[in-house]
Amino acid sequence: MANVPESENNHKSLDSSVTGETLKTRDESEKVETETKDTTKVSHSTPSDTQKRRLFAYRPSHKATFIGLGVVILIIALNAGVLLFLLQKESSNQKAISNKSVTISPATLNKLGVTDAQIGNSNEQLSIGPNTVFGSNLTVAGSASIGGQLHLNAPLTASSAILAQLQAGNTSVSSLNINGSATASSLSVRNNLSVGGAVQFQNTVTVAQLLTVDSSAAVANNLSVGGELSANTLAGSNLVISGIVQAEGHIVTTGSSPAVGPAGPAIGSNGTVSLSGNDMSGIIDINVGANPATSGAVAHIAFHSAYGATPVVVISPLNRWGDFYVANLSTGGFDIYTASALNASLYQLDYIVEQ
């Protein structure tokens, strides 16, 4: 491509820029204005580079800047006030909870159905949260159900109390009526104790002072008396005394009589033997009949209850002397023999049996 001189290019551009104005008719000028308006509209829809630079170069005035800053500061102040109010309310709630005290106005109590009038039947229910303290008296007209433990720092006063199970560390009772069973690890009664039913002691019972039993006393196991035992009547199946037995009155033995076996040849053909007494003592009557033997067995005595070991039997004549003696002694009984012939008469013998 040929190089064109710079002077020529400048000349051409000058000629093109300086162009004469061509006169046109009115209609043509209006048409040109219309076209110009259309061109202006198009230029507004697509701004030129110069207009874009003017938009990006816009700076607000000082007045608008101060107004904006004031609005921002006002919004921040409002938010800070709301936050401070919420913090103060939360702090007051926490303080009320820590003091464990809630104050309810009379109007609120009336809405809940709690008034100063006498407590009666009501369908309203008052639910109280944990850690509630009543500074004065609390009266409940109906039943009170406690799901957990009941701790009392003061005495409990009740006109009537029904308890399924009571565990008490230190309890003072002036009058106690127990219809069912009662178990106590340690029971101290400073005054009278009245028991209408049976009393069972499974362990050691210590009585510091006088023990008075108006009726019968049954001891299933051992009874140990360290001091003096006074009794108008002492009845027992087995009485074991390791020390000395002293009796100021009489020793009376009772019980069923022993059995008298067949009579021996020493009392004759029509002789009889009878007994009055018991296994410990008694009297034996011997009626000698005709033709008694010169010596031999008189009769056999069988105890009503056998002894645990062979006892000692002592016999002695009452009304007249005879050569009587004991033979064949065992735990079940003994025999009476005579060493000489008996006369046709009555003989009486005392006997005492001891193991």
Key structural traits:
single chain, 355 residues, alpha+beta, Immunoglobulin-like, 4-stranded antiparallel β-sheet, rod-shaped, disordered N terminus
What does this structure look like?
The relative contact order is 0.06. With 355 residues, this protein is α+β, with helices and mostly antiparallel strands. It contains five helices and eight strands; from the N terminus they run αααααββββββββ. The termini are far apart.
Task: Note the main sheet.
Answer: 4 strands, antiparallel
* Beta-strand residue fraction: 5-15%
Radius of gyration, in Å, reads 65 Å
Low-confidence stretches: 1-21, 36-45
The percent of residues in helical segments reads 10-25%
Mean pLDDT: 76
> How would the global form be characterised?
rod-shaped
CATH architecture of the domain at 259-354: Sandwich
What structural class do you assign from the helix and strand content? alpha+beta
End-to-end Cα distance, whole Å, is 167 Å
Remind me, CATH topology of the domain at 259-354? Immunoglobulin-like
CATH class of the domain at 259-354: Mainly Beta
Order of helices and strands: HHHHHEEEEEEEE
Side by side, the strands of the main sheet go 1-4-7-6
The number of distinct β-strands equals 8
How many distinct helices?
5
